[in-house]
Amino acid sequence: MQLTENQQYSIQGIDPAELINQYGSPLYVYDGSTIRRKVSELQHAFSGINMKIKYACKANTNLSVLRLMREIGVELDVVSPGELEMGKLAGYEANQITFTPSGVPFHEVKAAIEDGAIVNVDSIPLLEWFGQEYGSSKPCLIRIKPNVAAGGNAKIMTAHADSKFGISVLLLDEILEVVKKYDIKIIGLHQHTGSDIKDAEPFLKVADILFETAKHFPDLEIIDLGGGFKVSYMPGDSITDMELLGRTISERFKTFCQEYGRELQLWFEPGKFLVSESGLLLATTTVVKEDPARNFVHIDSGLNHLIRPMMYGSYHHILNLSNPEGELKTYNVVGYICETDTFASDRELPQVRKGDILGFLNAGAYGFSMSSNYNARLRPAEVLVDNGQAKLVRRRETLEDLLKTQTDL
Ligand code: LLP
After folding, report:
1. Domain total for the chain?
2. Could you give the angle at which helices 32-45 and 63-71 cross, rounded to 10 degrees?
3. Residue 124 sits in which domain range?
4. Which single residue of 38, 187, 301, 390 could bond 305 by disulfide (Cβ 3.0 to 4.6 Å)?
5. Would you say the CB of residue 364 lies under 6 angstroms from ligand 1?
């Protein structure tokens, strides 16, 4: 998104209002050039080592986004059979896809492995099952819980002692016992600390824990440090310093490889970092209500389309695209769902009028992918702007879509 000389916003030269005219409101719009930029930023930061990016596609599974990732050399991390299928539909070979389940039925793991994906084993029972099923005939990674608490809020921290994810590093002896019993071929150690992690320090801490743990596994090829880099949601937010992180982690990784006696590959699986900034949710104001307590701006969207503000109290910057130079006023921006779906409280915006188009920034990650049909509402369309061209990459849902799984019409 750029601000043009006459204070209008544009996405690669395209006026968002034009997109609303053409595809309707509300609308998710992704800027492909931002995704490309973020990928090269990450590649650049780790250019001194053998680093691979596995995009955590739970952030955004639109097939066109996945295809773009594939074209620019990014592989995939998936968490469900559905995401695996989407990866394959986007043209990925199964062996470019890592399956990182969280307590899923074992038949899902089996199907993914038979497909050719590699799995991040996340519990001792799954490791035991893997050993019985495959012995040393298939490789796997182990998801370690390093017992490190970091992340933007408690709901998105995934590596502290109380977290459900992974196998506690304190159970190393049990892990080794099962690995030995079935001669399991462990080719990688994985961990994911959490989301919205700004400082390099937690990344370094978990890296050291994995490097230490790695000494017990002689056949490793991969260390996977997960995702979680912080992006800027609020203007002026400090974010993960990728240059610093790249430099410090790369140095330690090189030392580790020397000690280990072999060149390994370092994997990261970011979601937000790659796609958050690329996305904009456009919505139209339906009612501006001047209540004695508050000025409410209602929009034709709600928690069914972007749940992050309600679920995590997340800040999403809002632009009044129709009146960027209007006088600043204070509003509560709310949705149309029969819940208190407040996008923003006491937010200063250029005067909002009925019919104005608002743009919610940083909606590319965990926006559409966390959307729902609550209140029997339809999901919006999605548009990808790439190489200066806007393309509809998902049509708006219809009432038929809403009804098609009901069997007693
Ligand atoms: N790897 C694993 C194993 C994960 O569980 C996740 C995110 C990622 C990578 C990517 O994390 P990221 O780079 O996107 O922070 N819905 C929440 C975020 C939940 C993330 C869940 N796991 C939000 O909107 O803030």
Report:
1. 2
2. 40
3. 46-270
4. 301
5. no
